[in-house]
Write a structure and sequence with these properties.
By secondary structure, this protein is an all-alpha fold. The protein has 16 helices and 3 strands. Helices cover 56% and strands 3% of the residues. Helix 6 runs parallel beside helix 7.
């Protein structure tokens, strides 16, 4: 057996073959099934893009209408799941609530028929339909309110915004949020997608697969970064403080949230689209200081770190858009999860097609042939 070179974090090590999405980090290219993300953001919808990712091609009119109808029909939660969520601590993070709730779906839909296309489709529909309802429900439950029931006459994005506030969203706001979901739907083999694939390779149920991915996305080095961008902008406070803040970060060698990417060495194409969306929102609903700070921060970082390939990533502007849409900061990552369910399910389905359980090896760095020491002869630990 050939001993492979160890690479921390498996950086650059191919883990699978896939035709779902493509990234060129040097040129700033992102494609879903070969279609540029810019085209999908402009011309498609989130559910149409989801269909593309999972089934491999854009749907025709009848296929899309049938898919959208199924999603609408399955948006509601069983009352036992709502009751379970009411027992969650109010101080709990929404991502933890979402992970537990997604896993609980497997108790209600326990039949596991991974070779049955009808089962695959039903699981896809349930997860896409119910995850947004779970996120919105926990947001209201932790405030002591009953969840708002979904509205069948609203689209996917508009319905979620409605469930958060029980107010019908502005058409522009709903469309911009739909584009945000499209931008976050898929991004090759990132940490949460890899987690989903490893879990899927054991042939467990799809609800456990999604719960596993949600838990991985929750980390601040992955999906949680968009929350920390808003915290950073709050700390900076004004445009005048941008450069002193940046200089301090560079001196302390601390991470600048929303900048840099393991793949992109130019500005993340999703960040460019999100910045344009933010400008449209601010033009209609009023500009705020956060956006001015963000623009100044991007300019300052580009001047000092652009030569190192450090530019805004998708997290930098997404939080600004979500904040303007009235979404609470600690829901930013659950919103990321709502979108990324599409990509996770696409990789789950692809994994099932030619499944082999993941079983990587390791490079052992420990000792060998160490004799067992009886407990009476072991060194005592001093306790203060």
């Amino acid at each position: 057996m050939t001993v492979c070179e160890y690479r921390a974090g498996l950086e650059g090590v191919p883990a699978t073959q896939s035709n779902i999405s493509f990234v060129d980090g040097q040129k700033g290219i992102l494609e879903y099934r070969g279609i540029p993300i810019e085209e999908l953001a402009e011309k498609s919808t989130f559910l149409e893009t989801t269909y593309l990712l999972i089934w491999g091609e854009l749907p025709n009119k009848d296929e899309l209408e049938a898919f959208e109808h199924e999603i609408r029909y399955h948006r509601r939660l069983k009352f036992r799941i709502r009751d379970m969520m009411k027992c969650f601590p109010e101080s709990g993070h929404p991502m933890d609530a979402l992970q537990a709730s997604a896993a609980a779906l497997g108790l209600f839909y326990s039949r596991r028929a991974l070779d049955d296309p009808a089962y695959i489709r039903a699981a896809v529909v349930r997860l896409l339909a119910k995850i947004p309802t779970m996120v919105a429900a926990f947001q209201l439950i932790r405030k002591g309110n009953d969840p708002v029931q979904p509205r069948d006459d609203l689209g996917y994005a508009g319905n979620f915004l409605y469930m958060l506030s029980e107010r019908e969203p502005d058409a522009l706001a709903a469309r911009i949020f739909d584009v945000c979901l499209t931008l976050h739907a898929e991004h090759t083999i990132n940490a949460s997608t890899f987690s989903a694939m490893v879990t899927a390779s054991t042939l467990t149920d799809p609800y456990a697969v999604i719960a596993s991915a949600v838990g991985t996305l929750a980390g601040p080095l992955h999906g949680g970064a968009n929350e920390e961008v808003i915290d950073m902008l709050e700390q900076i406070g004004s445009v005048e403080n941008v450069r002193p803040y940046l200089d301090d970060c560079l001196q302390r060698k601390s991470k600048i949230m929303g900048f840099g990417h393991r793949v992109y060495k130019v500005k993340d194409p999703r960040a460019t689209i999100l910045q344009n969306l933010a400008e449209k929102l601010f033009e209609k609903f009023g500009r705020d200081n956060y956006y001015d700070i963000a623009i100044a921060m991007e300019q300052a970082v580009e001047e000092k770190l652009g030569h190192k390939g450090i530019y805004p990533n998708v997290d930098f502007y997404s939080g600004l858009v979500y904040r303007k849409l009235g979404i609470p900061t600690d829901l930013f990552t659950p919103v990321f999860a709502i979108a990324r369910v599409a990509g996770w399910l696409a990789h789950w389905k692809e994994q099932l097609a030619e499944n082999r359980i993941f079983r990587p090896t390791q490079i052992y760095t420990g000792l060998h042939a160490i004799p067992y020491t009886p407990i009476t002869e072991r060194r005592e630990t001093l306790v203060d």
